[in-house]
């Protein structure tokens, strides 16, 4: 919630559009409600799924913020940068800024921001995976591979982590390693459509190369 409060305060200082200020205040109210619920006895706490859903809604909220203030893109960036300056050790501040940069089409800059977030929270699987995706989108495949490996190691029984690692191997022409990852992903999640499709493409590619 601290990041949201900082953004709201900074936005007031910079006289952002009224819709943006209203949105931020609503997000803070929602976050406070969530925190209060977590503080009650175990019988009244939100379920894990509810908390996850709230986190997802909050991430979507930052995108709505950027959309509301899209006519002042530079101002939006400045707000997020100020939030990072005020909370330099908060990975969420970097993730939120990275999301804004992606929406603005600045994938190269976003990759660096996501990478910083992953360095601050190297045990958070979802964050590490997001950073790997950002690096892949920026064309930094070797670095993306490192983080996809890290994500796989964090959740060795997660089929998607193996499939993602296989895909980055595939993109780099490391076909034997890609095939191994795809097979492991299918062992964990038989019939997964994306993995089956990627493995089929890989086998066709290898068959053509043998001709």
Describe the structure.
- The chain is an all-alpha fold and 211 residues long.
- Among the domains are: 55-141, Tetratricopeptide repeat domain (Serine Threonine Protein Phosphatase 5, Tetratricopeptide repeat, Alpha Horseshoe), CATH 1.25.40.10; 156-210, Alpha Horseshoe (Serine Threonine Protein Phosphatase 5, Tetratricopeptide repeat).
- 79% of the residues lie in helices and 0% in strands.
- It has helices spanning 2-13, 18-38, 48-68, 73-86, 91-103, 107-120, 125-137, 141-154, 159-171, 175-188, 193-210.
- α4 (73-86) packs antiparallel against α5 (91-103), α6 (107-120) packs antiparallel against α7 (125-137) and α8 packs antiparallel against α9.
- The chain starts with a helix and ends with a helix.
- The relative contact order is 0.07.
The termini sit apart by 59 Å
Helix fraction? over 70%
Name the poorly predicted regions: 34-56
How many distinct helices?
Answer: 11
- What is the CATH class of one domain? Mainly Alpha
Strand portion, in percent?
Answer: under 5%
Q: What does the average pLDDT come to?
A: 78
Rg from Cα? 20 Å
Beta-strand segment tally: 0
Q: What string, H for helix and E for strand, traces the elements in order?
A: HHHHHHHHHHH
CATH superfamily of one domain: Tetratricopeptide repeat domain
CATH fold label of one domain: Serine Threonine Protein Phosphatase 5, Tetratricopeptide repeat
The CATH architecture of one domain: Alpha Horseshoe
**Anisotropy-based shape:** elongated
Content-based structural category: mainly alpha
Main sheet properties: none
């Amino acid at each position: 919630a601290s990041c949201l409060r900082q953004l709201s305060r900074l936005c007031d200082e910079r006289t952002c559009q009224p819709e943006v200020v209203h949105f931020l205040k609503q997000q803070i109210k929602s976050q406070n409600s969530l925190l209060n619920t977590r503080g009650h006895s175990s019988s009244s706490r939100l379920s894990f799924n509810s908390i996850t859903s709230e986190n997802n809604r909050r991430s979507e909220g930052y995108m709505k913020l950027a959309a509301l203030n899209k006519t002042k893109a530079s101002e939006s960036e400045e707000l997020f940068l100020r939030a990072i300056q005020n909370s330099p050790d908060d990975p969420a501040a970097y993730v939120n800024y990275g999301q804004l940069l992606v929406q603005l089409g600045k994938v190269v800059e976003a990759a660096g921001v996501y990478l910083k977030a992953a360095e601050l929270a190297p045990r958070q699987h979802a964050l590490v995976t997001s950073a790997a995706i950002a690096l892949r989108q920026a064309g930094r495949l070797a670095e993306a591979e490192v983080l996809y490996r890290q994500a796989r190691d964090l959740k060795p029984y997660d089929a998607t982590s193996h499939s993602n690692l296989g895909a980055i191997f595939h993109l780099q022409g490391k076909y034997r390693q890609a095939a191994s990852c795809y097979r492991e992903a299918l062992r964990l999640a038989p019939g997964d459509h994306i993995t089956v499709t990627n493995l089929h493409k890989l086998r066709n590619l290898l068959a053509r190369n043998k001709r």
